[in-house]
Amino acid sequence: MGQQCAICGKTPQVGNRVSQRGKAKYLGGNGRKTTGISRRQFKPNLQKIRIQQGGGVVTRRVCTRCIRNGVIQKAVVRKAFSEAAPSAD
Prior knowledge:
Blueprint: E1 13-21, E2 33-42, E3 46-53, E4 56-63, H1 64-68
């Protein structure tokens, strides 16, 4: 499904965009007046990354909160450096 985190299921949320004019009272103005309210969407910050899942590596769209909090385990890009054991001649 589009615009949804594969881990936590976060989807776009709906809110309002509020347009205002005027200067705030605490700054010496007459107060802020609302001139318009329209609907808007708050979309999740999805990143396409390769993760370890079910013993394999899959590509999923995951929100940055899941990545940052360590909910997922990133796929290993290449094996760690390992030096060959010295020969006992």
